Every structure is written in structure tokens, then in C-alpha cells.
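Q: I'm writing a short explainer about Heme chaperone HemW for a general audience and would like to include a description of its predicted shape. Could you first generate the structure from this sequence?
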Amino acid sequence: MAGIYIHIPFCRQACYYCDFHFSTSGRLRTEMITSIIAETALRAHYLSNEPIETIYFGGGTPSLLTANEIQRILDTIQAKFNIVSSPEITLEANPDDLHKTYLQDLKKLGVNRLSIGIQSFFEKDLKLLHRIHDRDQALNCVKDARDAGFDNLNLDLIYAMPHGTDAEWAENLRQMMQLAPTHLSAYALTIEESTVFGRWYQKGKLRPVDEDKAADQLEMLMDVTAQHGYEHYEISNFCQPGYESKHNSSYWLQKKYLGLGPGAHSYNGTERHFNVSNNPKYVKQLSADLLACEGEKLTDNDRINEYLMTRLRTKWGIDLRRMGKDLHFDLMKNYGDYINHLQLQGHLFINEENITLTRSGKMIADEITEHLFQM
Ligand code: SF4
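A: Of course. Here's the predicted structure. Afterward I'll give you a sentence or two in plain language.
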């Protein structure tokens, strides 16, 4: 089984923390849709005819597309790939785009999962982040999405907000639990160099939250979601039973995927491909029926590192037998002392075949992965 990701590289306005690939100019929009459709056809064999079980529109802001544009892309995917009978089809959306008729149109197209960027229920946070929506739009769109028949909703939240308090984070979590989405993604705010926040940081105008405070807020997140029956199945992702994101899980479980659109990545089991993160260059290449990507064959160390980095963060953990069989790497032989030490400190569960993080291990997941990395 494999997945298809479509990157829609347009946003109405730039959020101050965001370093994804997007443009706030809609200048090449028509050409972009044509180019993504052309790339879909050109890469029809990338996944060796494996059944496609997930399709994911990410961005950027896919909810800027009209229903007709989404339909044209889906029709091409349907015509060129072998799709399972009930694929998970997710569309990332901003609250201000989700009008009632648009939601009904998405439903008719077969979109069955929405991932909505709420980020905070406080207006002051939304303003600081330079989000385009307000609190009422966030609350209304969840209701409207459910009225239109979307019962599988992911909602995004951001914690460790500059100037944010623990009490405000508790209130955000309370309101989120009231909405009871099937899936919650919650990320600590990071300050990336190429963003407005990055520039403010350089000038001393913005200070990141200290690590202890971010850790406290992660603890609150784990407590509240557990009390409400959510499973913490990946460091930043929580779901009601049975509602894991199939698409994102496929990345963490090393399944193959094809990424279409500028900035998208693909993985065919042995190589990674990276599409150019530049809208005019992408469109120029595709309008000449040429791909706009570069590839790299993964080395043995790359494959080991990717496996460690993705799997350790999940409930599935590291499968020691699989590491030995597929990656020819005996983790216990190389790092037995370190791993046993972590277990004694209560950071890991170990059984014969599997290593998973405990709650305290999740707090230091990056540190553990870094220690295990193969250079
Ligand atoms: S809407 Fe999403 S992709 Fe666009 S700037 Fe904001 S966070 Fe980034």
C-alpha cells in the first residue's frame, strides 16, 4: 500500500512562524493546477502500481482550490493509479475557507477527512501568529464541517507560544476537548530563521519559550488528552481509538509515497525525490513535460537514521528484528548499554522485539534519537 501527497503552494497571507513552501501571489494558480496534473501523469509508474490507500492535499493552503480544481486533480489520480475502494482522502484547510457550500462540494468529491489549522482559541495568539482566521471562524467551521457530514476531523494546535501562559494553554486544551475531534496534532512553536519570527528573534524582539515551560505544556497536553481517551500514537499526534492518520502513519511506517507539486518529496523504497521549491521553475519544467525533481539514493546509514527518527516517535516503536533483517543493523549489539541505561531510568519499554518510549522518554525523544544516529 502507498500514498499520494499533493502540495498546493499558495496561501492568502504568510503566517509569521511558517517556513513551508508557499507563495501569497496567486499569479500562477491556473498553470500550477495544469502542472500538477501533468506531473501526476508523468509519474504514474513511480509507485510500481502499488494500491493507493491515502491521498493527502497539503500545503500551503489546499482549501484555496475550488472544488472543480480538486476534482480535476483527483480524476487524474484515479485514472493513472490503482486506488483502493475506500481511500482516506484528506484536505488541509484554513477555517476561513470552509463555507457551507464548499464543505458540501468537498464531501461530494470524496474528501473524507479534513485537517483544520485552528492553532489557538485566543485572538491575541492568532494575531501574533498572523493567522488569517479568528476564533469564531474556527468554532463555526468545525460545526459546519460536521453538519456537512465530516466526522473525521484533525484539528491543529500550537503550544509554547511566546507570551503564552500555562493557564492559556490549559484553556486551549479545554476548548479543544469540548470540540472532541477524532484527531489532534499539537506542535511546540519553533522559531525558524527564514520567517518573520526568525527576524524578530535576531533583532531581540521575540524570545522563544524556555525548554522547561514547553516541557510542562507537553505534559499538560499528554494528561488532558489521556483523560479524554485519546491515544498518544506519535509525539505530536493524538487520536480517538481507530482514527490514526493513515497517510501520516504511512510515512512513519516507511511505506512508499509520491509527492506532487513544488516542494513535495517522494519515496519509492530505495530513493527519495525532491521537487523544486519554486513555483515558476516547477511550472516551467512541467509545461515542457519535464519533471522538476532531483533524486538521491539512500545510503545504509540514511535508512537506519530515518527508521530510528520516525519509528521511535510512534507507538509502534523500533522493531529490532526488522532492523536486523531489513537494515542489517543490530541496535542492541551497538547500543545495548545506552538502551539498558535508558530503560533503567524509565525512559524506554523493551521487550525482545520492540523498543518504545515511555512518557518520560517522549520528553527527551530528540536527544535519544540523536545519540543513536549513524554518521
Ligand atoms: S496557512 Fe499554513 S502553509 Fe500558509 S503560511 Fe500559514 S501555516 Fe504556512
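A: For your explainer, you could say: Residues 11, 14-15, 18, 20, 22, 59-61, 94, 117 surround iron/sulfur cluster (CB under 6 Å).
Q: Perfect, that's easy to follow.
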